[in-house]
């Protein structure tokens, strides 16, 4: 017990001094932790608007990471949405999420916005294992 208390005090001191980053936006629900990721709408405005609108329309704000299911989800979500010259088909929830796939919201957006956003999200989520829940907010 003393060891745990000392470790807690040490972490608190380091966090207050700026030596350690503590992610305050994670919440615990039962045994699962949900992390929050704030999507930068100023950097990727088309993708940000799509995420915001899709969530407002009732699609999940939470992405449960499922990298192995991404290809199948993408095939299902894009059925019936033909390609258009000069545009990418953006999907929300994303194909890499368990919540993605059939019924996802699809929007045609510029390739640079879509691919930049995809790269940014991929970099943010690479530290998390499949099964991790991430709540998206857009700012």
Gist of the model:
With 139 residues, the chain is α+β, with helices and mostly antiparallel strands. 37% of the residues lie in helices and 22% in strands.
Secondary-structure blueprint:
Blueprint: H1 2-17, E1 27-29, E2 32-39, H2 45-56, E3 62-64, H3 70-78, E4 88-92, E5 105-109, H4 111-125, E6 133-138
Parallel strand pairs: 2-6
Antiparallel strand pairs: 1-2, 3-6, 4-5
The helix tally amounts to: 4
- Could you estimate the helical fraction of the residues in percent? 25-40%
Number of spatially distinct domains: 1
Fraction in beta strands? 15-25%
SSE ordering: HEEHEHEEHE
Could you tell me how far the N terminus lies from the C terminus, measured between alpha carbons in angstroms? 41 Å
Shape field: globular
Ranges where pLDDT stays below 50 over 5 or more residues in a row are 2-26
What is the C-alpha radius of gyration, as a whole number of Å?
Answer: 18 Å
Main β-sheet description: 4 strands, mixed
DSSP E strands, number: 6
Structural class estimated from helices and strands: alpha+beta
Strand line-up across the major sheet: 1-2-6-3
Q: Average pLDDT, to the nearest integer?
A: 85
Organism: Paenibacillus pabuli
Keywords: Signal
Signal peptide: 1-22
Domain Deoxyribonuclease NucA/NucB: 69-132
Structure in words:
The protein has about 140 residues and is of the alpha+beta class. The protein has one domain (about 25-139). Helices cover about 35% and strands about 20% of the residues. It contains 4 helices and 6 strands, in the order αββαβαββαβ. The chain has helices at about 1-15, 45-55, 70-80, 110-125, and strands spanning about 25-30, 30-40, 60-65, 90, 105-110, 135-139. The strands form 2 sheets. It has a 4-stranded mixed sheet with strand order 1-2-6-3. The longest helix has 16 residues, at about 1-15. Pfam families: DNase_NucA_NucB (PF14040). This is Deoxyribonuclease NucA/NucB. InterPro entries: DNase_NucA_NucB.
């Amino acid at each position: 017990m003393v060891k745990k208390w000392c470790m807690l005090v040490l972490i608190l001191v380091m966090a207050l001094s700026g030596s350690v980053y503590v992610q305050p936006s994670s919440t615990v629900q039962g045994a699962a932790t949900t992390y929050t990721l704030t999507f930068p709408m100023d950097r990727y405005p088309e993708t940000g608007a799509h995420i915001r609108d899709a969530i407002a329309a009732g699609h999940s704000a939470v992405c449960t990471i499922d990298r192995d299911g991404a290809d199948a989800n993408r095939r299902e979500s894009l059925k019936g949405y033909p390609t258009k010259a000069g545009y990418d088909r953006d999907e929300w929830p994303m194909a890499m999420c368990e919540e993605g796939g059939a019924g996802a919201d699809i929007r045609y957006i510029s390739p640079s916005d879509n691919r930049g956003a995809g790269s940014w999200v991929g970099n943010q989520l690479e530290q998390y294992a499949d099964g991790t829940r991430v709540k998206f907010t857009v700012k």
